[in-house]
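User: Fold this; tokens only.

Assistant: Input:
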Amino acid sequence: MHENPKTCIQAYLCHMARVLAFDYGMRRTGLAVTDNLKLIATPIGTVNTPELHTWLINYLKTEEVDTFVVGLPSQLSGEDTHATQPVLEFIEMLKMVYPHIVVATVDERLSSREAKQSLILGGQKKSKRQDKKLLDTVSATLILQTYLQTIA
């Protein structure tokens, strides 16, 4: 007896893991996630960085994630910035606490500038474009889109 194909597809999609992206910052962290097929990057929002670990524990209780993508800051010259070391420490924490989840990095040199540009192109008013939470969320989404392009 054959199973219903629709049910099989739904079960398959439900068991596929997502990719979760971070635009890590000292105050807050922007977050974005893929769909189950890893085709579309969707913004989640921001979490205050001191609360990120607790948020992540709760998120992973309900969602299956097989890859973390972290934006790695550097200067245009490629040298580290003041934000590079805290991000590297965050990456090490992820690897230690979640050894079963792959941790990838994406060069985020231009993500903030691109985030602001995408808000301008989207017709956002200046007050919205200056909203740091919105910029962090858009940056995380751009980081994730960049990663998806590298695996496509």
